[in-house]
Specification:
The chain is of the alpha/beta class. The protein has a domain of 228 residues: FAD/NAD(P)-binding domain (3-Layer(bba) Sandwich), CATH 3.50.50.60. Helices cover 32% and strands 25% of the residues. It has 11 helices and 22 strands. Strands 4, 6, 7, 8, 15, 16, 17, 18, 19 and 20 form a 10-stranded mixed sheet that branches. The protein has a 6-stranded mixed sheet with strand order 10-2-1-14-22-21, covered by helices on one side. A hairpin with a 2-residue loop joins strand 11 and strand 12. The protein starts with a strand and ends in a 17-residue tail after the last helix.
Amino acid sequence: MKTDTLVLGAGIVGTSIALHLAKRGQKVTLIDRKAPGEETSYGNAGLVEAASLYPVAFPRSLRALIEVALKRNPAANYHWSALPGLAPWLYAYWKASAPDRILDYARIMQKLLSHSVAEHDALAAESGAAHYFREGGWLKLYRTEAGLANERTEFPLAREYGLTARELTIDEALALEPSLRPIFHGAVLWSDPHSVSSPGGVTKAYAARFEALGGRIVQADARALAPVPGGWKAVTAGPHGGETAENAVVALGPWSSDLLRPLGIRLPLAVKRGYHMHYAVPPGGGLTRPVLDEEGGYVVTPMEAGIRLTTGVEFARRDAPKTPVLLDWTEKIARELLPLGARVDPEPWIGYRPAFPDMLPVIGPARTRKGLWLAIGHQHLGFTLGPVTGRLMAEMMTGEAPFTDPAPFSVARFG
C-alpha cells in the first residue's frame, strides 16, 4: 500500500489530522466529496475558543424547558417528526447537563481548550493563514440582570485556569463596539479567545500546507469503508473504486455514522443543525470581534463576506429540508442591536454540528477494528478543536506520548 493513512472528511478536524500526520512523515490521502472547508467548517462563527469551559447544555429549569417546548426561545427550534428518534439521545443529553456533570465536562475540556489557540497559531504560521486571525476575544451581551448573573457563575473556574473575563458597563461595551445600540443590560469581555475572518479560508490554507508536505487530496464521495487484507479501503464512486491504506480515520462529522454502522459501530451521535447569513456592512456599522447576544440566541461576527449571523440549534433529521425559522427570528432581534445591511447570500446556509449526549468528542481508536480511528462529535467547538485534535490523534497514531490523557475522549465510554 502506497498510503499509510486515509483521512475521511476534509473539514477542519480531518484536515488538521492529515496535516499533523504529514508533518510526522506519514503518506496520507485526504478524502471528501467537497473541497476542504466547504461543509460545517465553513459556516461557524469563526471562534478559536479558550474560554468556553461550560458547554451548550440542555435546559434544566422548568421555565427554560417550557420556552423551548413552546418554541419561544430564539436559540432553539425542533421538528416534531424528529423527536421520537431523538428522544433517547435528548434524555441522555439532559442527564449529562446536570450541574455536577457539567463541572466534570469543564475540567476535561480544559485539557484541550488550553491548547486550542496555540495549536491554531502554529498551523496558521506555517500555512500562511495568520492574516485571517485576530485577537480581542469576544463580547457577550445580556439583556437582563438574570442573564448576566448566570454568566458571573463562570468567573471562578475561569480564574482558576488563568482566563480573563471582565464585566463591562454599557458605555464600556459601546467603546469597544460603537455600532451597537444600548439596548442591553450589561456585557462581559472574554479576552483569551481569538477569531477569524474566514473559517473556510483557514481550513483551505491548512489543506494547502498538507499538500505542500506531500499529502494527497481526493475529491470523492466515500460511500463505504471496508476492511481489506492489511488495512482499509474507502469505497468511492469512480473508475478505480476507492483508496486503500493501512489506517483509516473517520472525521466525517454528521455523516460518520453512515460508514460506521455497516461496520457494527453504533454510536449515540446526533446532529444539531444551524444556519447563517451574511449582511452588508453599512457605514459605521462594522464590528471588530464576535458578539454574542445571549438572550437573543445568536452570534454576529465580522467576516470577509460581511457581518455573519449564526443561529442557535435546530433538532431535526439530518437530511430534512431547510427550515430557517431561527435565522428569520434572530435577524429581527439583531437589527435592534446593530445596523445590518441587506442580505448578501442568495439563501440561508445550513450546517450540521455532530454531537454526543455527553458533549465530549470521540478522539482515538475504534477499539474493535484494528487500524480504524475516529475523530467525531466536536459539536459547537469543531473549528476551535481542529488543530488540537489533529495533534492528539497524530501523537496516538504514531506512538508519541500524547500531550494530554486521551482516555476521556475514548469511544470506550459508550460501551
